[in-house]
């Protein structure tokens, strides 16, 4: 077996507006895996990013 498998994953959740006419929900979420900095995960927090497509 593999020893010391990491049990935590850092993800980024982006909320997008659904522009389809017959859409059931107004917003949807896109989840992507975030890069882990070389110094580790300690001291990181939440950061709100406004993106325009």
From TrEMBL:
GO terms for molecular function: structural constituent of ribosome. The keyword RNA-binding does not apply. GO terms for biological process: cytoplasmic translation. GO terms for cellular component: cytosolic large ribosomal subunit. Keywords: Ribonucleoprotein, Ribosomal protein. The keyword Ribosomal protein applies. It comes from the Eukaryota. InterPro entries: Ribosomal_eL31, Ribosomal_eL31_dom_sf. Belongs to the eukaryotic ribosomal protein eL31 family. This is Putative 60S ribosomal protein L31. It comes from Picea abies.
């Amino acid at each position: 077996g593999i020893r010391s498998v990491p049990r935590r994953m850092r993800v980024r959740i982006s909320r997008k507006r659904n522009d389809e006419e017959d859409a059931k929900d107004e917003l949807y979420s896109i989840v992507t895996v975030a890069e882990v900095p070389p110094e580790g995960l300690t001291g990181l927090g939440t950061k709100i990013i406004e993106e325009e497509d």
